[in-house]
Design a protein that fits this description.
By secondary structure, this protein is mostly helical. The chain is built from 6 helices and no strands. Helix 1 runs antiparallel to helix 2 and helix 3 runs antiparallel to helix 4.
Length: 201
């Protein structure tokens, strides 16, 4: 969830994604998924007290997404997808700063900021997934589902933050889900690449 990479589908003159571009995207998705799972494990053991370690991890998570966006931005030609990638990179960077500030205010402010980021970045992920659907990069269902869930979960986090006894436990669950969806998308993209190589599409 949250973490929003875009496609290089339009990088070739014909608008078709090359094998190299598919591999680059697959590698980016797989790396992003593994990092999300590692973050979830680390945060699960560090968030009981909202101390320096926990706040540092909170800042790191959107920065991972920002770096992923930067990598994809550099590989994407001018167009709507590149603009969404740039927007998401800036958004994630601002979210990292905001989470660092919110951490000093306690659990509720952190949930508010994280939830707002999840809503907007999830919507951007859905937009990019819809643009990326096609014969070379597949139907993008994991990306679309992950983005939609990010929007819904982000709304839920803001509701929880306004209630009694908000908890940061949910953030590890969020990162775990996002990591699984990223890895699934990478696997499906690998399967699509194999189909194209063998001519079984």
């Amino acid at each position: 969830m949250s973490t929003q990479t875009t496609s290089t589908q339009t990088a070739t003159p014909t608008g078709r994604a090359s094998a190299g571009e598919r591999f680059a995207l697959l590698r980016l998705y797989l790396s992003r998924g593994i990092l999300a799972l590692a973050w979830a494990l680390a945060f699960a053991g560090a968030h009981e007290n909202l101390d320096t370690a926990a706040i540092t991890l909170l800042v790191v998570y959107p920065l991972i997404d920002a770096v992923s966006s930067l990598i994809d931005y550099r590989a994407t030609p001018d167009g709507s997808e590149r603009r969404v990638t740039a927007f998401n990179g800036v958004l994630s960077t601002l979210a990292a700063v905001a989470l660092g500030i919110a951490g000093a205010g306690g659990v509720a402010p952190v949930l508010h900021v994280f939830g707002a980021w999840a809503v907007v970045s999830g919507a951007a992920q859905v937009a990019v997934g819809l643009r990326r659907r096609g014969p070379e990069l597949g139907k993008q269902w994991p990306t679309l589902i992950s983005g939609a869930l990010s929007v819904l979960v982000g709304i839920t986090y803001n509701i929880q933050a306004a209630g009694d006894g908000p908890s940061l436990d949910v953030l590890s669950v969020y990162a775990t889900g996002g990591g699984v969806w990223f890895i699934l998308q990478a696997l499906l993209l690998g399967w699509k690449s194999r189909q194209l190589r063998t001519g079984t599409v």
